Amino acid sequence: MSPEPGSEVMSNIEASFAGTVRYTLSSADQGMLRVSISDQSGAPMPIFLHSPDRRIEATVTRGTGLVTLIPSLNVPGLGLSSLTVTYTLTPSGPGAPVSTSVKYSVQGAGLVLLSMQPPAGSTLRRGQVIQFQGTVLYNLDVDSGRLSLVIQDQANRNLQRGDAPSVVVSRGRGEATLTQSLTIPTSDVSAINVFFALRPAGASVSSNVILAPFTVE
């Protein structure tokens, strides 16, 4: 099984779970072996196939065999503390379904953009003075971290003068608002991207970034 059963899965990533299941089917000629993923409350989570050569279900026949199933999941950044991968064999005839499960804990910070002014996706005018203001919901699993607002153009060039606005946030869940005024360049800029980046204390790079994009005319 990959990742190792009981290990930690990072949030805000696409994770794949490769499991080879040994089954025994004796009550029917055929059965269906399926994999599912649920959160800590038992609610099902949306899974998908990362590539066509993978499977999340397979028809099996009477006897004993091995089947590999590989579901993928976009692990959310907020509200998820653990997840369970469950393999269920359902006979096509008599016999009750049989299941086995593997549990994982979820670690990592999370960000959700609650509000943005101007609204993300708006068109900005060259030479215009704009005040960007965003409110972010964060979830931090270390003692502290720094939330920053970064403004770049389509070529990833920083458009801010001086240090980027930032705020120190503490462990747990909370909201923070960051503001930055900017005069939109009159040339060489066709798009502006406003990033909110959360960097846990002691980390060299931000673990979570969300984007509010804008076009420029």
Q: Can you give me a brief rundown of this structure?
A:
The protein is mostly beta strands.
Number of helical elements: 0
Shape: elongated
Rg over CA atoms: 23 Å
Q: Largest sheet, if any?
A: 6 strands, mixed
Mean pLDDT: 90
Broad structural category:
mainly beta
**How many β strands by DSSP?**
13
Distance between the termini: 51 Å
Helix content estimate: under 10%
Order of helices and strands: EEEEEEEEEEEEE
Low-pLDDT sequence parts: none
Strand content: over 45%
Overview of this protein structure:
- With 217 residues, the chain is mainly β.
- The protein contains no helices and 13 strands.
- The strands form three sheets. Strands 8, 9, 10, 11, 12 and 13 form a six-stranded mixed β-sheet that branches.
- It is elongated and about 75 Å long.
- The relative contact order is 0.18.
